[in-house]
Structure formats: structure tokens, C-alpha cells
Design brief:
By secondary structure, this protein is of the alpha+beta class. Helices cover 16% and strands 55% of the residues. A hairpin with a 4-residue loop joins β5 and β6. The N and C termini lie far apart (40 Å).
Length: 206
């Protein structure tokens, strides 16, 4: 029952973002694609399923869908919707970790083959699950709680251009910081998440 509830929370949070992106697909400069992220983080609030109980530093991975909307010749608004981690955590660990974000990307043209891309990002982190002192299952799993907080970060990337082609690749780095605050939690969990990821973006221009 809890797994179904977490999946519905994820779907309810996802739909407004997806609808917003869909409304803009008629624009002239629209790119969509898949982002694969791998990195690490310091987290003194949430349980990490990949590390032992009590460990604050661990890996972080996700796969997401994104849409980039052209604002001008050298600016894009990127809307990123994570998919892998929310579904996996809800299905396997009775948890929710959903962190959608938007990034304002500025493109500095370098030539025919590559461009440099950078810009600020802002998102929200939604959590439901135990704290970092908890085991993932069994009698040592702690009580679950809701928490949320803003994600403030940046993006630095290299765009490998393929003129007149429908597909190209972008490699980037995304540092971020997230203060987390629990909601209706008897233990009043709060803390900080600091991390970064290496991002592989597979971009399609229809």
C-alpha cells in the first residue's frame, strides 16, 4: 500500500512539470532528451540505500527526461524531471526521493565543433523515508518522515555539436546544495545535502 502511495505522489508531482513542457513544444527552438547523472553527496538527513547506516557520504545516480526551450540565440531554459530514482526507491525501498529542477543555460560559441554551456539551476527536493542512521529494512529501519527543501546549484558543460543532425551529446558537471526540513516530524529532522554529478545529456532536436 505504501509503495502505491509513493508512486502516486511521484506521478502527481511529475504531471504539472510534464504538462508545462508539453505546452511549449510548438516553439521553434525545442530540444528534448535523456540525462544520465552519476556523482556523490554529503547527506546528514536521508537514508542512503547504497551505504551502511550512519554513513553521511555516498554515491548518487539518476536518469531523467528533460526539455530545453530556446529563449534567445544563446539562452535556453532546461526543465529536468528525474525518473529512475523516484520509481526505484518507491518500488524497492518504500521511499520517495524526487528532485526536479530548472536550469538557465547560457551558450558561449567556440566554433563548429563545441560550445561551452553554463548557468544557474534551481529545484526542489522531496523526501519520504528514514534518516541516515537507519538500516534499509528489518527491525533496525527507523521511522519514515516527509522532508523538503530548495536545490540551489549550477551547470557547467561542453556541447559537442553536430550541425544539421537531429542528435548531439553534451557532457557537464552539476554541483548543488540543498537544505532539508522535515514536515510534521516528531524528531524535527533537518540538515544539509551537498553534492555534485557528472552529467551525460543525449539531446534530440526534432
Amino acid at each position: 500500500m505504501m509503495k502505491k502511495s509513493l508512486l502516486w505522489i511521484f506521478i502527481a508531482a511529475f504531471l504539472p512539470i510534464a504538462a508545462s513542457a508539453q505546452d511549449n513544444l510548438s516553439g521553434d527552438a525545442v530540444i528534448f532528451g535523456i540525462k544520465v547523472r552519476a556523482g556523490g553527496r554529503y547527506d546528514n538527513v536521508r537514508m542512503c540505500v547504497a551505504t551502511p547506516a550512519g554513513e553521511k557520504i555516498g554515491p548518487a545516480m539518476d536518469v531523467s527526461f528533460f526539455t530545453e526551450l530556446g529563449l534567445s540565440g544563446n539562452k535556453f531554459l532546461s526543465i529536468n524531471v528525474p525518473v529512475m530514482r523516484p520509481i526505484l526507491f518507491a518500488a524497492q525501498f518504500d521511499m520517495l526521493q524526487f528532485e526536479p529542477d530548472v536550469t538557465l543555460k547560457f551558450v558561449a560559441k567556440q566554433g563548429d565543433r563545441i560550445d561551452l554551456v553554463a548557468g544557474p539551476s534551481l529545484g526542489v527536493s522531496l523526501h519520504y523515508g528514514p534518516d541516515y542512521l537507519s538500516e534499509s529494512d528489518g527491525d533496525l529501519r527507523g521511522p519514515s518522515f516527509f522532508a523538503l527543501g530548495p536545490m540551489v546549484g549550477a551547470y557547467f558543460g561542453i556541447d559537442f555539436k553536430r550541425p544539421n543532425e537531429t542528435f548531439n551529446f553534451q557532457l557537464g558537471f552539476s554541483p548543488y546544495v540543498t537544505p532539508l526540513f522535515s514536515i510534521n516530524d516528531p524528531d524535527s529532522h533537518k540538515g544539509l545535502v551537498v553534492g555534485g554529478s557528472l552529467d551525460a545529456l543525449f539531446r534530440f532536436n526534432p
